[in-house]
């Protein structure tokens, strides 16, 4: 990303260098309804890749979880520290909280993250019959159907919703701590709104910066402030049937060292809505 002053609103020019320093690679996801996917292909919803010797994921009460997303990294442009092979899966509970635990967002009792470093493409060695774990239409889920994924690697600037924006761009602890120091006019009209129009973190992605309708869950939890975005699935109800509550968004975060080690046992799961 070659960020030039002429591409920025004038009130943001003084912050160009620090804004540019936040650039991260990200892979965006374009979804299309598709009922004809193999179990090892990347997908949102549908039936998972599951070797016969692997138990189907369940919640703390023994109820089957729903496959939210599956990523086969052989199909995905590489970004630093992410796998370049294997399959990563996200499962969530079909309840009114979509499996999130407000008291401990890393407790995988209502959600599960699984990683298989080697991919078997011999269907005889994979679970093919999921009739015993079918979820009913009465179950709560933020999606309906199955979607294929088109991946695109790009670059992204830090979003205003990211809790670290104030520190990284404005040298303050929190974004609105800078309001009294701002000399470019009205802070809301001349900084917040122009930046929001210029930079958006909405949509589906792997890596990069997150979007929230409420608050970044890392903000008030020092234990996870080094965590980065692993996966984001946004509401997508114009052409697809994906909706988190009232037009919300779901995010999964991971410590960079855990990502390098392919340790997905301490992933933080969050979703919020308007």
- Low-confidence runs of at least 5 consecutive residues: none
User: What's the story with the biggest beta sheet?
Assistant: 6 strands, antiparallel
CATH topology: Hypothetical protein YwqG fold
| Global structural class | alpha+beta
Organism: Acinetobacter venetianus
Protein name: DUF1963 domain-containing protein
General description of the model:
The protein has 274 residues and is α+β, with helices and mostly antiparallel strands. It has helices spanning 16-20, 165-170, 187-198, 256-261; strands at residues 24-33, 43-44, 66-72, 87-92, 111-116, 147-156, 205-206, 228-234, 249-254, 268-272. It has a single domain (5-272), classed as YwqG-like (Hypothetical protein YwqG fold). It has four helices and ten strands. The mean pLDDT is 94.
Summary tags:
four-stranded antiparallel β-sheet, Hypothetical protein YwqG fold, elongated, six-stranded antiparallel β-sheet, DUF1963, 274 residues, DUF1963 domain-containing protein, YwqG-like_sf, alpha+beta
């Amino acid at each position: 990303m070659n960020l030039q002053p002429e591409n920025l609103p004038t009130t943001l020019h003084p912050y160009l260098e620090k804004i540019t320093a936040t650039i991260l690679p990200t892979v965006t996801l374009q979804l299309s309804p598709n009922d004809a996917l193999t179990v090892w292909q990347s997908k949102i919803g549908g039936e998972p890749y599951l070797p016969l010797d692997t138990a189907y994921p369940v919640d703390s009460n023994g109820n089957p979880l729903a496959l939210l997303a599956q990523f086969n990294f052989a199909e995905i442009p590489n970004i630093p520290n992410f796998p370049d092979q294997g399959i990563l899966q996200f499962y969530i509970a079909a309840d009114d909280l979509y499996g999130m635990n407000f008291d401990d967002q890393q407790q995988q009792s209502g959600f599960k993250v699984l990683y298989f470093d080697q991919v078997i493409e011999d269907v005889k060695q994979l679970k093919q019959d999921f009739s015993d774990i079918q979820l009913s239409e009465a179950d709560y889920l933020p999606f309906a159907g199955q979607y294929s994924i088109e991946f695109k690697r790009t670059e992204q600037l830090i979003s205003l919703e990211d809790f670290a924006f104030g520190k990284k761009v404005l040298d303050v602890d929190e974004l609105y701590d800078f309001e009294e120091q701002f000399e470019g006019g009205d802070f809301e009209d001349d900084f917040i709104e122009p930046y929001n129009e210029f930079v958006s973190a909405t949509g589906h992605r792997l890596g990069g910066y997150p979007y929230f309708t409420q608050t970044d869950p890392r903000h008030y939890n020092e234990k996870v402030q080094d965590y980065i975005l692993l996966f984001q699935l946004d509401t997508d109800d114009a052409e697809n049937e994906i909706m988190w509550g009232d037009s919300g968004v779901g995010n999964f975060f991971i410590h960079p060292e855990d990502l390098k080690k392919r340790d997905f046992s301490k992933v933080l799961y969050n979703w919020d809505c308007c």
